[in-house]
Amino acid sequence: MGRTYVKGLKCRLCGRAYPKEPNNFCPEDFGPLEVDYDYDAIRADFNLEAVRDRPRTMWRYRELLPIDGDPTVGQLVGGTPLVFAPRLARELGLENVFIKNDAVNFPTLSFKDRVVSVALSKAKEFGFDVVGCASTGNLANSVAANSAAAGLTAYILIPANLELAKVLGTQVYGAHVVAIDGTYDEVNRLCTQIAFKFGWGFVNINLRAYYAEGSKSLGYEVAEDLGWDVPDHIVVPMAGGSLICKVEKAFRELRELGILPHDRVPKIHGAQPAGCNPIVRAVQEGTDVIRPIRHPRTIAKSLAIGDPADGYFAQAVIRESGGWAEDPTDEEIVDAIRLLAETEGIFAETAGGVTLAATKRLVQSGRIKRDETVVICITGNGLKTQDALLPAIERPAVIRASLDEFTRLLESHEQHETAETPLAR
Ligand SMILES: *Cc1c(COP(=O)(O)O)cnc(C)c1O
Ligand SMILES: [Zn+2]
Predict the structure, then answer these.
(1) 238 burial class (0-12, 13-18, 19+ CB within 10 angstroms)?
(2) Which residues lie with the beta carbon below 6 Å from any ligand 1 atom?
(3) What is the 16 CA–ligand 2 centroid distance (Å)?
(4) Domains annotated on the chain, with CATH
(5) Which atom of ligand 1 approaches the CA of 215 most closely?
(6) How confident is the model over 328-351, as pLDDT tens digits?
């Protein structure tokens, strides 16, 4: 532990090298920067025997994450379950379905804890005392909680229309929360100005190259839990399009390190809500030009990024893997949240509904076949987006504490149930 495998940063467009600094774009062509590793050094130190004995957190893949010392923030993040889901599989008409359940990530119940633990560990290495983010909700929760535990001051900017649970679940940690009357893209632009004016460490702006690498740990965990293999298909929700790129990168790195066989390459599918679908639209129209959505309108607020920073790269990853992209409606999203809950006992947030509903469409169109293995990435927790379900779920019947009343209620249910079974939706 403690040694670095990072050579520096490099431009994802022109490949030019830059030093290890809080910087996110190439001044030559404004291309985004990416962490550049010394894979020969990694190959010498990273092997499966060493990994097997380490704690089940994202840091068991430490050599492939971009920090120089030991992690100082979010040491317990990751290690979420890969759940075999036979009851869901049957409903989908499939045989082998797994849920990667990041709805139970520690500490803030979304996959964002993975990116934040890397970004804030890096912020400490760089000597930032003040950190921040532009967020659609989950990132706000995670930056607030992890900053609190690390003793960092956090400024968090969000669109004013976020779910109550996500706003409250940010303020409770003592973060400075500023709600902006505008879209996420407007919030993000303001944060870029703030980061450079005040010299703060914004996890998804000037620390973005490091932040994004944290998402790879989800891919490593899926591969390890499948016995160092990959599924035939993986379905990934997209907001800025970073996670889906890093899932692909994780599998590619494991192939290049000789840990995964070279001929095992999964089809990577992307999911966005119909009301904010710029990457899906590009994939479906066969273009690499991402046309921003100016006014996103969807219950899946965590995915409502109209101008996705990694949209170009995300559509390329999807296309090159042989995958596809789907954009379910709000109604399909709610139905999918209920389907996952009723079949597997997993309560996903709206983004999870998007991912499962997209999977359903991929099965219906024949892109995913019955005997193929599918991993569905559930990235956030349903307790944070209850607002979206309120119109869909009836309030429970209220009776007095009387056995007679209970019996009558039961009889009336039995009459209903012959007409309608819970899974008939
Ligand atoms: C942020 C987020 C995503 C996707 O993020 P990218 O910007 O595409 O990396 C997916 N699901 C949830 C719940 C999120 O909060
Ligand atoms: Zn460049």
Answers:
(1) buried
(2) 110, 112, 138, 237-243, 302, 349, 351, 379-380
(3) 6
(4) 82-109+213-388 (3.40.50.1100)
(5) 9
(6) 999 999 999 999 999 999 999 999
